[in-house]
Amino acid sequence: MGSANKSSTARKARIEEMRRAEQARERRNRLLTIGASVVIVCGLVVGGVVLVRSQSDGGGSDTAATDTSGKGKFVTGKDGVKTWEGKLSRNHVTKAVKYASEPPVGGDHNQVWMNCNGDVYTKELDNTNAVHSLEHGAVWVTYNADAKKADVDALAAKVKKTPYTLMSPMDDQKDPIMLSAWGHQRTVTGASDPNVDTFFEKFVQGEQTPEPGAACTNGLSQ
Q1: Alpha carbons 31 and 24: distance in angstroms, whole number
Q2: Where is the composition biased (Polar residues) (predicted)?
Q3: What is the DSSP letter of 49?
Q4: CA atoms of 119 and 115, how far apart (whole Å)
Q5: Model-level pTM?
């Protein structure tokens, strides 16, 4: 019990630290945008960056796969977590991407991330935006029509309290509830499954994160 309490306390402290960092980042962003139109500024910034990246990346590809080498695969560990073994490309693209898994766990993605500061979405997301969130160290909770409403509601409440997480429906996934992080994924039986907390503890801003500390706000929202 002692070690469990210490782990829980450490996790809460880490989440609070991330929340304070996000709040500080938001305050800085507000100061930087005083006197300017948010819509105009965002349009100019996003449009300009997309233009530059699309020129440097060749505009992306309709058939860009998660594993550009074509040799990647999932390997399931003793803990039930599937780890992608293979190259996960990280190019910014402007077109649709054909991923090797559903939900995807990495690969080429849109230049704009989905907000993932405990954001719960009620409609399916564009995978290319959500994958960018995974690159920032977010855990993505997805569910299909077979998931029980009670589990969906309980998981939504958990996500809303956890920075660097997001949640959305995904009709095409094979299991009712799945958790994804960059390069890692697992299925859980429901909101009370202890593997939910274990996955969050390990992968929310975990060691797998390609861009630790990158923002989960000021991105795209529904």
Answers
A1: 11
A2: 1-10
A3: H
A4: 6
A5: 0.75
For 50-74, the pLDDT digits (tens) are: 343 443 343 444 444 444 434 689 9
Q: Are 135 and 164 in contact (CB under 8 A)?
A: no
- Whole-angstrom Cα distance, residue 5 to residue 28? 35
Per-residue tokens: 190 = 């429901």
What H or E segment, with its residue span, contains residue 14?
helix 2-32
DSSP state letter for 55:
H
Instruction: Evaluate whether 175 touches 187 at the Cβ level (below 8 Å).
Output: yes
* Residue-wise DSSP of 191-209: TT-HHHHHHHHHHTT-TT-
Q: Name the percent of the chain lying above pLDDT 70.
A: 71
pLDDT in tens, 68-103: 434 689 999 999 999 999 989 999 999 999 999 999
Q: Cβ contacts of residue 179 below 8 Å, gap of 6+? A: 139, 140, 141, 142, 185, 186, 187, 188, 196, 199, 200, 203
Q: What is the DSSP string of 21-34?
A: HHHHHHHHHHHHTT
φ and ψ of 192, to 5 deg: -85, -5
Least confident of 3-12, 110-119, 129-138, 145-154: 3-12
